[in-house]
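User: Sequence recovery, please. Input:
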């Protein structure tokens, strides 16, 4: 009986020590590389939604160490260094960088004496929080304004708190913008990792095309055109990753398209607008 009691007492003490130890050690969350990429993807999606002219998005861990960076087309070269500084400042001081920009504007200029290595008091840096813990920071530089820098950073930082909204925001285009897009023929919406929407315009025949990853879903808005699908490209050559062009198409099936028609061209299928009555206007949804 005494042996049993001693054993029970020892187990009780051991359990108490284990519980105490757990109480003294916090469970710390950390940001993975995959998570850093999600932050950048959300910020890039917001940049495209806002038609931001450029920007560099940097993500750091909770120690301020760079994990991932993406530079959008058209961004000035120094944007990378500035965005990293913003991300690092936000996480090391656990505050949005706009706080420090405002403090300095209000007269506390002594703050600018802090070392540049970890202090960039410019709007556009946001801490990344998960369940109340700061796991990293995101900084953006080079968008159209400091406010837009911050908007993109917020979209990235919020990806774990509201992933549905961050990953797929509602996008609306007023009719004037749509009309302007068709006037010159341009990309209306770009989520190139999944889909794109083109407000396309043709005033003359084009080259034969093959999109190796994208299917084209075409809806004719106005005009008429002769489209050849299938067959094989003549004198094929690559113009970009997964994009092949040719002088024309040999063989294939010919269709006459007009207003209201819909045609779906699967990825990897040659197609060629052989004849066009100008202007030929059509929506293209590129699905990947």
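Assistant: Recovered sequence (288 residues):
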């Amino acid at each position: 009986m005494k042996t049993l009691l001693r054993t029970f007492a020892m187990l009780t003490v051991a359990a108490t020590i284990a519980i105490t130890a757990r109480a003294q050690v916090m469970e710390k969350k950390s940001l993975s590389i995959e998570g850093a990429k999600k932050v950048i993807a959300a910020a890039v999606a917001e940049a495209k939604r806002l038609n931001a002219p450029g920007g560099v998005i940097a993500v750091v861990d909770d120690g301020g160490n760079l994990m991932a960076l993406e530079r959008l087309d058209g961004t000035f070269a120094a944007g990378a260094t500035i965005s990293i500084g913003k991300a690092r400042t936000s996480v090391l001081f656990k505050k949005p960088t706009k706080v420090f920009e405002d403090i300095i504007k209000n007269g506390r200029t002594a703050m600018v004496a802090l070392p540049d290595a970890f202090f960039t008091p410019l709007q556009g840096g946001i801490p990344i929080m998960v369940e109340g813990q700061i796991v990293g920071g995101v900084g953006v530089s080079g968008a159209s304004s400091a406010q837009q820098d911050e908007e993109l950073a917020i979209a990235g930082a919020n990806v774990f708190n509201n992933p549905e909204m961050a990953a797929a925001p509602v996008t609306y285009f007023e009719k004037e913008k749509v009309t302007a897009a068709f006037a010159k023929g341009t990309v209306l919406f770009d989520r190139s990792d999944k889909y794109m929407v083109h407000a396309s315009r043709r005033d003359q025949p084009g080259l034969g095309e093959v999109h190796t990853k994208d299917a084209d879903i075409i809806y004719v808005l106005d005009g008429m055109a002769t489209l050849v699908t299938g067959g094989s490209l003549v004198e094929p050559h690559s113009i970009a990753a997964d994009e092949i062009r040719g002088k024309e198409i040999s063989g294939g099936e010919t269709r006459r398209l007009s207003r209201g028609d819909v045609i779906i061209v699967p990825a990897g299928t040659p197609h060629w607008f052989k004849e066009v009555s100008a202007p030929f206007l059509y929506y293209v949804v590129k699905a990947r």
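The chain has two domains: 33-167, 175-287.
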